[in-house]
Amino acid sequence: MQDHQTYMHRCLELAKHGLGHAAPNPIVGAVVVWKNQVIGEGYHRQAGLPHAEVEAIQSVKDYSKLAESTLYVNLEPCNHTGKTPPCTDLILRHKIPNLVVAQTDPNPLVAGTGILRLRKKGVNVIEGILKKEAWELNKRFNCFHVNKRPFVLLKWAITRDGFIDQIRKPGEAANPAWITDEFCRSLVHKWRTEESSILVGTQTASLDNPRLNIRAWKGRAPLRLVLDRHKSLPAHLNVFDQTQETWVFTEHDIPSKRNLRYFRIQADKNDLPQMMQILYEQNIQSIMVEGGAELLNSFIKDDLWDEARVFTGPISFNKGVSGPEFNFSPEEKIQTGNSTLEIFRK
Which residues carry out catalysis? Predict the structure, then answer.
């Protein structure tokens, strides 16, 4: 069992390299072990490229050893043809006798059929090794397929006296007052590369005029989402600059442009479930919500969140916009830059 966990830990380490690149596919690592020696490794680098099992098997120098090997993988091998052939075919073709899996695949296209097929063909399959860790690693993919909606990550910064912003009026030429330092802001940009999309509301788009890009980190920029029910935001804002794809949710019928797409939501219904349904249908697996108190409170009130990351900075505003009503206990508390970072998981 200890050996199984050791090799599965390595799978999880390898899988992390695909974070921010593999979506909408899961992040997966694979390790081939022959007589207690690692003879092959791989991970899924990007959607459309070979899966982790393929990478690991192809890295083996002596294929004759595969018939006496164990393949470790943190997610059940696929059993269907998508952009690449089924990994179960590859495992059977090389006569790999043993497979150790952390979790089954919740995608209805797989959902246990990969393991079932391999067992029927005589492969010894062990399931559930580091299942909890594997589930957490693929929380976006798992949430999307289990809950039929994107994974929702809430993020905000708050002063030590409980405010997330100073009092500002729309159109007021005032830059946002930074609560955290440059290190924390760079970390947030790193987080953006790991999520499929990033959402702000009308107030934040108007007052902060954010670019919602990753200028402080290297990676893939998220899809920008803006909730603008009444089409009140001016076209000159950074989120509409068409240099990066932006989707706008509004009650109006508006034709789309290059890198600027409009989605109609109904005025007499709650906007968040409508947005979640649209994003699910569009195969968007995760959202990072960086809005103001009103938008954050809406997600919290609707119980529509999976994780929250909250910075508490070292400064005070004395008065301002109060932080979200969030009466939960953090799972982690970390000193990050000049701030304390608390991480909440539901």
Answer: 53
